[in-house]
Amino acid sequence: MSASQRARVDAKLSRRHPLQRFESPSRGFSGALHNESFGWHLQFLTIIGITICTLCFTFGLIADITSSPTFFTLKNYLALIAAPIEIVISLLYWGLRAIDDALIVPPDLPMPPILYDLGFHLVPAVVLTLDAILLSPPWPTIPTNPQAPMLMLVTSTGIAFAYWWWIELCYSYNGFYPYPLFGILTTIQRVGLFALSGATMWAVGGALRALYAWVNGYETLEELEKVKRAKKMGAEGKWE
Q1: Model confidence over 165-202: pLDDT tens digits?
Q2: Domain boundaries, the chain
Q3: Planar angle of CA 209, 213, 219, nearest 5 degrees
Q4: How far apart are CA 208 and CA 4, in angstroms?
Q5: Is 60 within 8 Å of 72 (Cβ atoms)?
């Protein structure tokens, strides 16, 4: 082996210990972890969604362990946001990847391994959908708020444009957007993208409520009375 070849091998070996799990320094996982740009990883919609999802399931787990109605209600309120936003993230991510990977990941960075990719961009949407349909009431309060569609429209639109404001703030400090697509679009096009995303999130929330009704039935006065009676008897230590 020539001296130059040995030097290259030694340099590579010295950079990563045999027991070291990942390559570092590198443009992959190490680069992501040590990212010091303004906004850190919370520039990414995926990370924001997973943070909300984690908080939602943390409340759900505490409710399961303690049988706490308070944590159960908190979980259900968070799920109103977490489930639609994770589904929209999955739709946007896989839709854009089907068009061009470079729209969401800079060309000089590697794509994540498939298991990580599914874990970040598909699994949260699936498990939150299952939770919303099978393990949650139709609305956190009883009866369902009659203004639910309007509340969700305002919330969805607010979240979409709050994220737009956030990434523009990060751009003003960093000089780059978290996703290459944002740099390709004009300001008007970005407004359209976020407006469409907010409307899609609202539509997804409506679709989840419709699916819930199809699977579990509609909320009726008789069912509400049964729930109220069961809660009252449970509080009194009595059972039918």
Answers
A1: 999 999 998 888 999 999 999 999 999 999 999 999 99
A2: 38-235
A3: 105
A4: 62
A5: yes
Angle at 139 between CA 200 and CA 196, to 5 degrees: 10
Q: Is 90 exceeded by the pLDDT of residue 83? A: yes
Q: Please check the confidence at residue 9 and state whether its pLDDT lies above 50.
A: no
DSSP string covering the chain: --HHHHHHHHHHHHHS-TT-SS-SS-SSHHHHHT--STTGGGGSHHHHHHHHHHHHHHHHHHHHHH--HHHHHHHHHHHHHHHHHHHHHHHHHHHHHHH-GGGTS-TTSPPPPHHHHHHHHTHHHHHHHHHHHHSS-SSSSSS--TTHHHHHHHHHHHHHHHHHHHHHHHHHHHSS-SSHHHHHS-HHHHHHHHHHHHHHHHHHHHHHHHHHHHHH----HHHHHHHHHHHHHHHTT---
Decide if 193 contacts 185 (C-beta within 8 A): yes
Rounded-to-10 torsion of CA 140, 143, 147, 152: 20
Question: Token pair for residue 193?
Answer: 């993208």
Gap between the Cα atoms of 90 and 96, Å rounded: 10
Measured from the Cβ of residue 49, the count of other Cβ atoms closer than 10 Å reads: 23
Between 15 and 205, name the one with better pLDDT. 205
CA distance linking residue 179 with residue 196, whole number of Å: 17
pLDDT digits (tens, 9 = 90+) for 11-66: 554 566 666 666 665 655 555 555 567 777 889 999 999 999 999 999 999 999 99
